[in-house]
Amino acid sequence: MTVAEKTHSSPAVPVRDVPVPDVKRRADRVASHAAGVREMFDRIAPTYDTLNHLLSAGIDVAWRKLAVESLASRPPGPILDSCAGTMDLTAMVAKRWPDCQVIASDFAAKMLDAGKHKAPQAERVVADAMAMPFADAFFSAVVCGFGMRNLADTALGIREARRVLKTGGVFTTLEFFRPTSLATKAFHGVYGRVVLPAVGGMVSGDRSAYAYLQESMKQFVSRSEYEALCAQEGFLVRRSEDLTMGIASLIVAEAV
Ligand SMILES: C[S@@+](CC[C@H](N)C(=O)[O-])C[C@H]1O[C@@H](n2cnc3c(N)ncnc32)[C@H](O)[C@@H]1O
User: Fold this and answer.
1) From the CA atom positions of the chain, what is the Rg in Å?
2) Could you give the CA distance from residue 217 to residue 23 in angstroms, rounded to a whole number?
3) Of the chain's two ends, which shows fewer C-beta atoms within 10 Å, N or C?
4) Complete edge-to-edge strand list for the sheet that includes strand 79-82
5) Per residue in 33-49, pLDDT tens?
6) Which of 26, 41, 158 to mutate for ligand 1's pocket (most ligand atoms within 8 Å of CB)?
7) How remote is the CA of residue 146 from the centroid of ligand 1, in Å?
8) Which pLDDT value is given to residue 214?
C-alpha cells in the first residue's frame, strides 16, 4: 500500500488529492522519487516553519544548537547547510561564525525562498544533495538537518558530502533514524501515524505530505546502519547519540 492510499483511507481531515513519493520504492526509482520529494517540499514551504515549531514543541532548537556547535572542530573554510530547507541551521551557523562563508543548498527552491530572510548573507544554491555543483574538497563542514532520509540513495548522499569536504572536515547529521528500541518505536508510531498527519494536514491542508514524513522515517536506516554507511564512504564517526530519548539523533563524522 502506498502512503497516498493509506492517507486517502482516513476521513478525519480533508485530503488534497496530491501525489506523494512512495518511499518504499525509492531505491529503484531514484529520479521520480527525487521529483516527488522536491514537489512535495515546494508545496508545503509556506507553512513548513509554523508546523515545524508546533510539531516539535520547540525542542528542535536545542538539537540544532548541538549540531551547530559540533562544527567548531572543523578546519578553516566555507560551511554547507545541505538540504537546508527554510534555512534554520544556515541562520544559526551564520550567526555563530559571522566571518565564515555559508552556503545553503536544497533542491526545493520554494523552501529556500521561504527562509532566505533568516540569513540574507548566506548564498543559496538550488541543487540535489546527491549531485552537488560544488568542487571537490571545497567545504570545511557540511551540516544536514532532517534531509538525509528523503534521499533516494542514502549512501550516494553521504558520498557527495565526503566529496565536497576537505580531509579533516566535519559532516554533521541531525536526523530521525528508524527507531530500534520499543519505547521509541511506540512514540514514533503514535506521533507519526496520528499527530503528524492530523496537525500537519490541518495547518498545511496537505495531510499526505505529513504522512510521508512518518513513512520516510520508518523506511530509513537505523542510527547504527547510518554510522556504517558513513564509515564505508570515507568518514570516521566521532560522535553518535540519541537526543530527547531517541526522538532525534546526532551523528558527527570526520572526513578521513
Ligand atoms: C524535513 S526538511 C529539513 C529542512 C531543514 N534542514 C531543517 O532542518 O528544517 C528536508 C529538506 O530536504 C530537502 N531535500 C530532500 N531531498 C533532497 C535532495 N535530494 N537534494 C536536495 N535537497 C533535498 C527538501 O527539499 C527539504 O527542504
Assistant:
1) 17
2) 9
3) N
4) 123-126, 102-106, 79-82, 139-145, 165-175, 248-255, 235-243
5) 899 999 999 999 999 89
6) 41
7) 7
8) 77
Domains of the chain: 19-169+177-255 (3.40.50.150)
Q: Locate cell 559540533: which residue?
A: 70
Each residue of 110-145: pLDDT tens digit?
A: 999 999 999 999 999 999 999 999 999 999 999 999
Cβ–ligand 1 distance for 176 under 6 Å, the answer no
Q: Are 142 and 77 within 8 A, CB to CB? A: no
Instruction: Please give the number of the atom of ligand 1 that sits closest to the Cα of 108.
Output: 25
Cell digits for 21? 513519493
d(CA 129, CA 254): 18
The model scores a pTM over 0.90: no
- Ligand 1 midpoint to CA 194 (Å): 23
Protein residue with least CA distance to atom 15, ligand 1: 150
